[in-house]
Here is the input.
Amino acid sequence: MTKTIDRREFLLGAAVTALAVSMPRFVFAQTPKMKVAGVHASPVENAWNSRLHGAMQKAAEDGLIDYVFSEGVSAGDYPRALREYAEGGAQLIVGEAYAVEAEARQVAADYPDTAFLMGSSGEPAGENFGTFGTWNHEAAYLAGMLAGQMTKTGTIGSVGAIPIPEVNMVINAFRAGAMEVKPDVKHLVGFIGTFFDPPKAREAGLAQIDAGADILYGERIGTADAAKDRGVKAVGNMVDYTPRYPDTVFANAIWNFDPLLRLAMADKAAGTPTAKNYTPLSLMKQGGNDILFVDSMVPAEALAVMEAKRKAIKDGSFTVPIDTAEPK
Here is the structure.
């Protein structure tokens, strides 16, 4: 147990070190605090939303912002929530425009003095509509390399939300990593049609296990429940699921929103236009994503192969392909 904790602490420390070395120093005005609002379409315990929510909570704890948020906001209510926060004086609004692209962009155009940082498959707009995608595909690729070496049935599975580019990319990367070490691996894919429905993700995972999968990539929360129920292994996505599933989840493809948030905050504080794509700050070399794993659950030979690739990603000698096509 001690060894596992040490390893995970080491990896987190390495990510922080990489961030400190490679990222620009962010300078914020001391007073007054920036007013930041989070508009979450899913509950904040949902993996993706929890990363945004946690980063903004941390900024508030550091005394940089006053943070307010809404969660479980439906697509129909989303534009109204954005407008209410803008009218209420929020200087930066963080959220997701995937289901309301046109509406969110119109709200931003109506409030040019408010910065919007939105998860989006589209491009930045105007002077104040910044976008970001979730790039933890590098970590997913490394997790796939472990899965490809660990599967006993030769079949692995992935359960995703909706086949949008950001979801497709991470699932495709997981498959590509597995195929690097096991070219004949069979990869099953299922989508649950929503961003938050743990029981539905569990059912999709059970179906893949019934079809022969002995390792599941849980792009959606609930997938690991299926793995736990059937005694197979799983990979977590976005957050560290190991404490919740200590005998099931052997690796996690972590995504860190903090670098993106802090740069957007710095841009807003400096009066710099925030209509930019903040996605590249998700790269592993920027501290935006990394893999966490449990040593005792991963064979040493599999770990060595993965670590060599991880080093190559960080030093730039290997680039994980970005494939946003819908997985077959």
In short: Residues 2-22 form the longest helix (21 residues). Residues 1-31 have pLDDT under 50 and may be disordered. Residues 2-132+257-286 form a domain with the Rossmann fold fold (CATH 3.40.50.2300). The radius of gyration is 20 Å.
